[in-house]
Structure formats: C-alpha cells, structure tokens
Amino acid sequence: MLIDFRSDTVTRPTPAMKKSMLEAKLGDDVFGEDPTVNALQHKMSKMFGFDDALFCPSGTMTNQIAIKCHTQPGDEVICDERSHIYQYEGGGIAMNSGCSVKLLEGDLGRLHSSMIEHAVNDKSDVHKAYSSLVSLENTCNRGGGACYDFSGFAAIKKVCIQHDLKLHLDGARLFNAIIAKRENPKAYGKIFDSISICLSKGLGAPVGSVLLGDKKLIDKARRIRKVFGGGMRQAGILAVAGIYALENHVKRLATDHEHAKALADILKSKSFVGEIYPVETNIIIFEIAGKYKSAKNFTHSLEKKDILMIPMSPTFVRMVTHLDISEKMIQKTIKEIKKL
Ligand SMILES: Cc1ncc(COP(=O)(O)O)c(C=O)c1O
After folding, report:
1. From the CB of 257, is ligand 1 less than 6 Å away?
2. On the chain, which terminus has fewer CB atoms closer than 10 Å, C or N?
3. In terms of CATH architecture, what is 252-339?
C-alpha cells in the first residue's frame, strides 16, 4: 500500500467521477458551446457571487491570466514572499506580464493591511514602478495551509480601494479554508476582483482551475487564455469532474483536516521534530532537527516504508492529506512514525 502525502494533486478520479466524465454532454468550448463547461462556470460564479467564470487547464494559468488582466508591463505586483505566484510559476509574472514584484514577509504567507499600505509606491514618483495589484493566497501552501481571518481581507480591500489597487486571490485550496473557517463563499465575491480556484487538488478532479471575476475581466481573460494556448475544445469531459467534485468532495475536506491534525500530534511527540507550523487545514510542514539531520534523510527513510513526503527545504518536510488518503493509511503512518 503506497501512502502518498507529497501533494493533494496526486488524487485520481473516483469510479463515480469517471462515470460522470463518460456521460458528460460535450461541445466546442472555444466556440463557447460546451454545455458542461458552461454549467461549471455558471455554478462557480453563482456560488462565489461573481458575474462570470473561466475554466482553464491549471491554477498556474488562472493566476497568470488574472495578473495579466490586472496589470500593464512595468507595473509592480505586491505579494507574500512564500506565494505560489512568485515561488512556483516559473517567473511568469515577469515573462507573461512584464511586471516586477514587491515581496512582503507575512505571517505564514498571510499579509496584513498595514504591510500593504507601506508597500504601495507613490504613484506621482516617476522613479517608482506603478503598484497595481495585490495578490493573496488562501490557504497558504508554504505557510502550512494557514488561513486568513476574513476580517483581514476587508482591511486589505480598504487599502486597495484607497490606492487604486486590484485584489486577486490565489484560492488553489480555497474550499479547505471555507470548510476550516466555516465561511460563506459569497463573501469572497464582495472582496476580490478575481479568484483562482483549483479543482484538481483536495477536490480530486484530474484537471482544471476556474478563474472568477466580473464580465469585463472574464471576457479579457478568455482572450488571454487563447493566447496562452489554454483554449480547449470538448473540455466538458474535464469540467464535469469539477462539477462532481463540487457536489461530492467539499464537505469531506474536514476529514483531511482531522487527518492532518492527527499526524501533527504524533510528529510533535518525536524528539527529531523541531518546529511544526500550526495545522489549520490539510498541510503539515515540520522541521527535522535531531537524528535525521536533513529533510531528505527523513523522507528517504519513510520512502522505504512506502510513505511519501516532500522535502520543502534542507530541513523542512511537507505532508498533505487528501481524498486518496484513508483512515487506514493514517493509522499505518502513525504506527511507522511512532517506531522511529
Ligand atoms: C497555492 C497554489 N496556487 C497555485 C497552484 C498551481 O496549480 P497548478 O498545479 O494547477 O498549476 C498551486 C499548485 O500546487 C498551489 O499550491
């Protein structure tokens, strides 16, 4: 039994999800004629209180399209130093949008409104790049799945309005935050100018992310998606997996969060574990101190027992719980960690 905690992207479609894929009604989505893609876009835009939505192949693409929509070449994007858009999108902010980045040191990936207030450049100073976009992440991947308190968003939005900044949310794991914090998705539509949500992480769909925004933004985003090569044809065969996931795999995220807490509890009891980031959702990031010396040594020793994890840095390891991790797998992992 292989137990794969490397990421929640490793989930495979369930038999019921595959059945829905075989039965999906299809059309050409570049012509706007795929009824299933249209249904997914409609469902998600209504759920979050937006006018419209756009189905794309990946979360990287929805983030990059949003950044391009909100900026002009030469502008500056404000984000946390740990954010996915900066760390893991191949320098796409510079390559696709010609923008520079102002990196802030938040609390486990979360920014405070006062930090943004100080980071905005004076628009009348010709020496400075034009600050045009703030991008937040919820949950924060490199922050161990940390979630914002919703009041923080309202304060940030206020700063954005004062300084004429657009506000984007990388919500790759937004449903994890919504479940953990018992939030109403519609509240997000009142704050953000755009949101990217992944269907292919904890929700268990094989492919796909959705960008949410107003009609003007999504019309522009559809054009940019085509330019980026992301216009897909009978994409309903993928979109239907997203619809299935939204209907069947959202509430169960609470189980992933419980599993993550159980793993964190056992790790805390081990002398070779140093710091553990607070576990709020499905990600556990912890430091290897004592006898294993490095994150790689530790992950290699677990690999021999068919338990996979990711070294995040020379000394930190990440584990992610998800749909394909059963209670039995959690119990086996706890047993193996206890023996170490
Ligand atoms: C926070 C965050 N944003 C965006 C992405 C990008 O998603 P994709 O792998 O679909 O490009 C990821 C992927 O892990 C992520 O963790």
Report:
1. no
2. N
3. Alpha-Beta Complex (3.90)
